[in-house]
Design brief:
Layout (H helix, E strand, L loop, with lengths): L1 E5 L3 H13 L3 E5 L2 H10 L4 E5 L7 H11 L4 E5 L4 H9 L4 E4 L4 H15 L6 E4 L2 E4 L4 E4 L2 E3 L3 H12 L7 H8 L11 H12 L4 E4 L3 E4 L2
Parallel strand pairs: 1-2, 1-3, 3-4, 4-5
Antiparallel strand pairs: 6-7, 7-8, 8-9, 10-11
Helix pairs in contact: 2-3, 6-8
The structure holds calcium ion.
Length: 217
C-alpha cells in the first residue's frame, strides 16, 4: 500500500514517514498543501495522511480540491482545540481524523482501518486458499504456523488478496507497492512474485498473460 503524508513540521513528517515505511508502506511526502495536492492528483495513493494547518494551501482546501477529482481515503491530523476543523473535514470528505499529539500505534491502526474499509473489507483477517492473512500483524500463516515473508512480499500478497477474484495489472502493482524514491533494482515485481511462489506454491498467484496477476476469489 502506498501513502502520501502531507505535513509541514519537518520532524513529524520524517518520523511518520519512517514509522509507516517500517510497517511496509511505500511512502511519499509533501511539506506544503500545493505540493501535496499535486502529488495527490498525480498518483493513486491508498491513503493520504493530511495535516490541516499547512502553508500555501491548507489541508481542508486541499481536501476539497482533491474530492472534485478523486475518492482517495484521507486521514486528517487536526489541532487539539479545532473541533470546527474536524467537522468541516469530515463534511468535506475526510474518512477519519486524529487529534495532535497522537499515539503512533493509533495512527497505524486508523490507517489500516481506513484502507481496509476503502477496499470493502470489514474484517481484519482474510482466508486465501489454505492461508490466513492477518492485516493488523501483517502476517501469513497456514494451519497456525507462520510463514516468514519479507515486507515487500507481504505487501504484494496483501494487495492481491484484497482484490481477490480480479486481475491486477502490473502498472497498478508498481503504483501501489513502490514509492517515488524506489530505485529500479528494488522494483522488480517478477522477482517478488517468484519468491512468493517458492514459499507458497505456484498455484496461489496466477499470471494472466498480458493482463497482470490474480488470486482466485
Ligand atoms: Ca502543520
Amino acid at each position: 500500500m502506498r501513502l502520501l503524508i502531507v505535513e509541514d513540521e519537518a520532524d513529524l513528517l520524517q518520523s511518520l514517514a519512517m514509522a509507516t515505511r517500517d510497517e511496509g508502506y511505500a511512502v511519499d511526502t509533501a511539506s506544503d498543501g500545493e505540493e501535496g495536492l499535486h502529488k495527490a492528483l498525480e498518483s493513486p495513493y491508498d491513503c493520504i495522511v493530511l495535516d490541516v494547518m499547512l502553508p500555501r494551501l491548507d489541508g481542508l482546501g486541499l481536501l476539497r480540491r482533491l474530492r472534485v477529482a478523486k475518492a482517495t481515503p484521507v486521514l486528517l491530523l487536526t489541532a487539539r482545540d479545532a473541533t470546527g476543523d474536524r467537522v468541516q473535514g469530515l463534511d468535506s470528505g475526510a474518512d477519519d481524523y486524529l487529534v495532535k499529539p497522537f499515539d503512533l500505534g493509533e495512527l497505524l491502526a486508523r490507517l489500516r482501518a481506513v484502507i481496509r474499509r476503502h477496499n470493502g473489507q470489514a474484517s481484519s483477517s482474510l482466508v486465501i486458499g489454505e492461508y490466513d492473512l492477518s492485516l493488523p500483524s501483517r502476517t501469513l500463516s497456514k494451519g497456525g504456523v507462520r510463514i516468514p515473508l519479507t515486507a515487500r512480499e507481504y505487501s504484494l500478497l496483501e494487495y492481491l488478496a484484497l482484490r481477490r477474484g480480479s486481475v491486477v495489472s502490473r502498472t497498478e502493482l508498481y503504483e501501489h507497492l513502490f514509492d517515488e524514491n524506489d530505485d529500479s533494482l528494488s522494483n522488480l515485481l517478477d522477482v517478488h512474485v517468484s519468491k512468493l511462489r517458492r514459499k507458497l506454491g505456484t498455484d496461489l498467484i496466477e499470471t494472466r498473460r498480458g493482463m497482470g496477476y490474480a488470486i482466485a476469489g
